[in-house]
Amino acid sequence: MKYYRFLLPAFLLLSIIGRAQTKLTSFSPGAIWPDDKGVHINAHGGGILYNDGVYYWFGEHKIAGDAGNRAMVGVHCYSSKDLYNWKDEGISLSVSPDTTNDIAKGCVLERPKVVYNKKTKKYVMWFHLELLGKGYSAARAGVAVSDKVIGPYKFIKSYRPNPGQTPFYPALTPEGDKINCVNPTHETDKFFCRDLPGGQMARDMTVFVDDDGKAYHVFSSEENYTLDLAELTPDYTGHTGKFIRIYIGHQTEAPALFKRNGIYYMIGSGCTGWAPNAARWFSAKSIWGPWTYHGNPCQGPDSQITYGGQSTHVLPVAGKRDAFIFIADKWAPKDAIDGRYLWLPISFKGDDIEINWVDNWNLDVFKK
Ligand code: GAL
């Protein structure tokens, strides 16, 4: 009888040892990635914010089955100091039980990205929103804010960006390269012109904050044919009306931006739904372009399908030079919660980039 009193301490000790044993020291792209509770991380289509020495990973919380392709819960947040081990911080933005709310439970709420605004001291979350029961026809950008990094975030509004605005063109842009709704040049111009009064469609997206504190929203527009890169207002919660169109008519999705040595880089994908396709990358000396297309950065077997994944974010590793991690989702549309994460190091050949598959790796691949 008396050894019952040892059961609890023994159990506690074993669970501590169990946890210590599961401490991760490397990345295994595509594998189940347990959080601090031993549960596979649930933050799909995500992005990562580095804040005060801690990384915060925000992504779509998915449920099992194909119902998981819709937002039944909201945006999930995890935190980490080492990028391998992630603590579950709970739901940062919850969907609403009110079916008339823009972010009603069962809507499509994808690719959330959080940035910090130094002036307002607020955390701002942008995401792609599709209204409940309307398929993918709404094509809106949604925004929510919080005073605390992990939330709770308060939903503010959703809309189609830049109504009534024509693109910004750098000086000396030939007239023939500018949008002309009377005499359109590209097939996709008709979608741009159709949506001019009400605002441009906004689907797959990211947000990028430049060194000068200006933030940009990059999104698939014009029925996914063209990418728009648009300036956000100083408080990051709206669009200023200044934007450019990138790689017109070529269906780029899943944009992820980063900057190195004064050059802007963007990695994206083609447009084949949940099925993987070849990644593509671009670079520019100015955020306003011109953006040069460079083809597929991935090398080796399965590089034509991005190793089964689709880009979502590029993470600069704090305190290391030239250390950028390509982050992709390996979708599991039939059982959405089982989606996996592919984290791979980006290598530089001069100003060019390359991505190679690695089964298992750690941050030592980057020089100090
Ligand atoms: C993908 C897109 C995902 C999701 C999916 C739906 O192309 O990148 O975020 O929208 O289509 O089919």
Automatic annotation (TrEMBL):
Keyword Signal tagged: yes
Pfam families to which the protein is assigned, alphabetical: Glyco_hydro_43
Signal peptide: 1-20
GO BP, sorted A to Z: carbohydrate metabolic process
Protein name according to UniProt: Family 43 glycosylhydrolase
Keyword terms of this UniProt record: Glycosidase, Hydrolase, Signal
InterPro entries, per the entry: Glyco_hydro_43, Glyco_hydro_beta-prop_sf
Domain of life: Bacteria
Coiled coil: none
Family: Belongs to the glycosyl hydrolase 43 family.
GO molecular-function terms, A-Z: hydrolase activity, hydrolyzing O-glycosyl compounds
